[in-house]
Structure formats: structure tokens, C-alpha cells
Design goal:
The protein is built from three helices and five strands. With 103 residues, the protein is of the alpha+beta class. 5% of the residues are buried.
């Protein structure tokens, strides 16, 4: 069960995975204005900008991003391997999405 912070709008966005055909959903816990404000400020700090993009576009948790190591990133295949996930399902391989930024 997810608990949304007071005053925020938590909405679910559904999309179809082009390779598997499965419908997936993503929770948005930031309002669009909050997201724009964060990225406007983070533009001055490339690392923060890229980390924010990974978290929002790939659905990564902050602790998963911090735990990434060089060997978890495969630039040739465009994949990230999450080894330190909270559960078996959280330990996964992510394919790079166009909006996820460079890594």
C-alpha cells in the first residue's frame, strides 16, 4: 500500500511495453509543477539532474541509484542492473529509455 503525502496528487500513468506488449503503470508522486521546478533547479548540477531522471523515468528508488556500481552499467546493451533491491522482484535489469538521460 502506498501512502501519498498530504496535499499531493498521486496519479497512475499506464503504458504498453513495446517489446513485451504488457501494460505497466507508474505512480507519480510529484505534481507536474513540482517536477518542472526540480529539473529547472537541478539543471545547474548535472549529477542531480541525471539522478532525478533515472529515478522518475526508470522507477528506481533513491537507495537503488546510490548503490549502483560501474559493473552494474552496460553501455553497449543500454542496461542497468539493480543488484541491491529490497526484494527478489526489485533486483532486476532495466533497459535504457530515451528520456532517462545518459548513463
Amino acid at each position: 500500500m502506498r501512502i501519498k503525502p498530504r496535499g499531493s496528487r498521486c496519479r497512475r500513468k499506464r503504458r504498453r511495453n513495446s517489446s513485451t506488449g504488457r501494460v505497466t503503470s507508474r505512480f507519480h508522486v510529484l505534481a507536474a509543477a513540482e517536477e518542472r521546478q526540480y529539473f529547472a533547479l537541478a539543471a545547474k548540477h548535472r549529477d542531480l539532474y541525471d539522478l532525478g531522471r533515472l529515478m522518475l523515468n526508470q522507477g528506481m528508488r533513491p537507495e537503488e541509484v546510490v548503490a549502483l556500481r560501474k559493473l552494474d552499467v552496460d553501455l553497449e546493451l543500454g542496461q542497468l542492473q539493480i543488484r541491491a533491491g529490497k526484494s527478489k522482484a526489485a533486483r532486476r535489469t532495466l533497459d535504457r529509455r530515451p528520456k532517462a538521460g545518459r548513463y
